[in-house]
Amino acid sequence: MRAAFTLIELVIVIIMIAILAALLYPAINGAQNQAKKAQAKNDLMQIVTAVNAFYTEYGKYPTNATTDATATYGPGGSTTENGGLFNELRAKSSTLNTRQIVFISPPDAKDQNSPRSGIKTSTGGYYDPWATEYAVAMDADYDNQIANPYPDGSAGGDPTAIPAYSLRIGVIAWSYGSDQTIGTKSPASSSYKNSDDVISWQ
Asked: Which of 62, 98, 144, 150 is the Cys-Cys partner for 192 at CB 3.0 to 4.6 Å?
């Protein structure tokens, strides 16, 4: 007849399972974060493609702004919500998109109270996997340059350009990443180095 497990044996097994789980958690968490970054990068490229397609179709960007600063949408922008921009790109508004062409068609966020990875239907805002709206900036003065939101030049800016750290491009988009802060959270900085931000122009 086989003897039952002793209490000490059960405790040892539980401790071993806990140690294995603790060792696996960082790997699983890292893989999930990498998947979110890949999704955000894909979303950002689709946004840039949609804005450029709008420009090709209409000969202007989907904004009434006349300066780059006022054509920045999302966190930190002059328009803190990007819903108006995405309503135009999704043909939910005909103010600028008069032909009602669908340039981008992201899904609605599953949780509308804390939207992630999709559109918040009440505002039209497009959210990243970490529940922050994507930021988008366009060359509204049509001089083929946009100020780099990371002014130290660490996210692809050219520090010798005039004006300083401008990007010679028509549209850029970025996500603040999991810390929901531009650049590095600690110490606070707009630097891209060592941050978890995802950007479209690299």
From this structure: 150
